[in-house]
């Protein structure tokens, strides 16, 4: 196991990461799949970025004149916001005002050749537009329709406006992600949008596409960010099935904040993660730290637990982070560094895995982004085409859908595209 020295000056932007993988010669896994993406902001964009990376044709359906909110959000690289650029590589853009009858008709024409529709409106919005899943499936029975919302399509909270942090708070997860029941505070990473929303939607869409290959018929996929987050703590809430623990709160710190499974400071004010959960790793940890008195007493509570924590903390403050990494390089105890994201991306492992890709954007210039995390036959497919300009493919997509020039011009004059 190797880690970048903590004094490394190499960084994400400005250093080209070589991709070690070569094309496999096979089509990408989702080649030939067409996705109509009506979502905005993070959850939908991340989900459809992964679909695009795996070869799907992703068409962003955006509002004329404004588009996805993230397009113009500061700070911008040059013209577009950096977050938008990170999550919309290799996609196409068509502008349709779905409140206009002509634009709705054009959207229905697109649906006839689509495999997936993903939307993130509040429940009922698409139906009120005359574009609910039943209507779309009458035009294309094979269509997979994914609705991704905060609370799902039904239930008393279905219409409540909320964002990622709200979902974390309403599911109890906020206590766990920041390590405190008494002082919950915001998290830097929107884990609800990504894990509870985007990745659940990706799983649901892929499962529905797989089923469609057997049945020939699509189905609805109802994704709730809140449901997704609640599913994460299922292995912990299952303790309530134990009669003696039925009235207990979900365990907060066992085993996820014990002296053998936590974070410690080193002599240079850096930090190490100690994850010596298994007895063999715990024994090695105690031996390296010269704490033999704790080898047979890993799982202790109360004052003994605090004494154990103090002993480990004091021992780890005797050396710098890099000195400990060198020492543990040949002694397996699940001791690893707390790195910055920049250090992680500049490290030997991320470099070897080709986790930084470069996209040549004609407007923004060369942009470096994180690669697709999924690998097939050793290859991590990543869309390297730049983000589309707003409405860049509107005319070509409408022509391909069968609209003639006069019809397209009529929609343009009406402001529908």
Structure in a nutshell:
With 417 residues, the chain is an alpha/beta fold.
What is the topology?
Layout: E1 34-37, H1 41-53, E2 57-62, H2 82-87, E3 92-95, H3 101-111, E4 116-119, H4 125-128, H5 133-139, E5 144-149, H6 164-171, H7 173-178, H8 191-215, E6 220-224, H9 225-232, H10 234-237, E7 261-265, E8 271-275, H11 279-288, H12 302-316, H13 321-328, E9 335-337, H14 341-346, H15 348-352, E10 356-361, E11 365-370, H16 394-400, H17 405-413
Parallel strand pairs: 1-2, 1-4, 2-3, 4-5, 5-6
Antiparallel strand pairs: 7-8, 8-9, 10-11
Helix pairs in contact: 1-8, 6-9, 8-9
- The share of residues in helices is 25-40%
- CATH topology-level name of the largest domain: Rossmann fold
Radius of gyration computed on alpha carbons: 25 Å
In DSSP terms (H or I, runs of 4 or more residues), the helix count works out at 17
Structural category: alpha/beta
CATH architecture of the largest domain: 3-Layer(aba) Sandwich
User: Hey, roughly how much beta strand do the residues contain?
Assistant: 5-15%
Number of strands: 11
Largest sheet: 6 strands, parallel
**What is the domain tally?**
2
* Biggest sheet strand line-up: 3-2-1-4-5-6
Which CATH class of the largest domain applies here? Alpha Beta
């Amino acid at each position: 196991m190797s880690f970048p020295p903590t004094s490394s000056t190499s960084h994400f932007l400005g250093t080209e990461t070589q991709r070690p993988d070569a094309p496999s010669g096979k089509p990408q896994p989702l080649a030939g799949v067409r996705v109509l993406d009506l979502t905005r902001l993070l959850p939908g964009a991340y989900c459809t970025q992964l679909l695009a990376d795996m070869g799907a044709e992703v068409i962003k359906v955006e509002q004329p004149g404004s588009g996805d909110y993230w397009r113009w959000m500061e700070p911008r690289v040059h013209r577009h916001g950096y977050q938008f650029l990170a999550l919309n590589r290799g996609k196409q853009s068509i502008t349709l005002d779905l409140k206009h009858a002509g634009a709705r008709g054009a959207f229905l024409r697109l649906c006839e050749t689509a495999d997936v529709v993903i939307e993130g409106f509040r429940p009922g919005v698409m139906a009120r537009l005359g574009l609910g899943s039943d209507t779309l499936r009458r035009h294309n029975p094979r269509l997979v329709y994914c609705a991704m919302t905060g609370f799902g399509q039904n239930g008393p909270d279905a219409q409540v406006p909320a964002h990622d942090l709200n979902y974390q708070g309403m599911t109890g997860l906020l206590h766990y992600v920041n390590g405190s029941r008494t002082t919950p505070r915001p998290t830097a990473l929107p884990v609800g949008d990504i894990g509870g929303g985007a990745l659940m939607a990706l799983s649901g869409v892929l499962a529905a596409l797989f089923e469609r290959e057997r049945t020939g018929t699509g189905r609805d996929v109802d994704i709730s960010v809140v449901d997704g987050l609640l599913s994460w703590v299922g292995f912990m809430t299952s303790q309530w099935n134990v009669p003696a623990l039925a009235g207990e709160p979900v365990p907060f710190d066992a085993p996820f904040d014990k002296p053998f499974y936590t974070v410690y400071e080193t002599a240079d004010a850096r930090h190490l993660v100690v994850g010596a959960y298994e007895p063999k790793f715990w024994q090695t940890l105690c031996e390296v730290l010269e704490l033999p008195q704790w080898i047979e007493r890993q799982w202790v509570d109360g004052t003994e637990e605090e004494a154990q924590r103090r002993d480990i903390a004091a021992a780890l403050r005797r050396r710098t982070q890099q000195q400990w990494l060198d020492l543990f390089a040949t002694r397996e105890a699940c001791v690893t560094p707390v790195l910055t994201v920049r250090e992680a991306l500049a490290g030997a492992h991320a470099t070897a895995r080709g986790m930084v890709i470069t996209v040549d954007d004609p407007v923004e210039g060369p942009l470096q982004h994180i690669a697709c995390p999924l690998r097939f036959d050793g290859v991590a497919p990543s869309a390297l085409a730049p983000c589309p300009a707003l409405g860049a493919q509107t005319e070509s997509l409408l022509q391909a859908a069968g609209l003639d020039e006069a019809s397209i011009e009529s929609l343009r004059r009406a402001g529908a595209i």
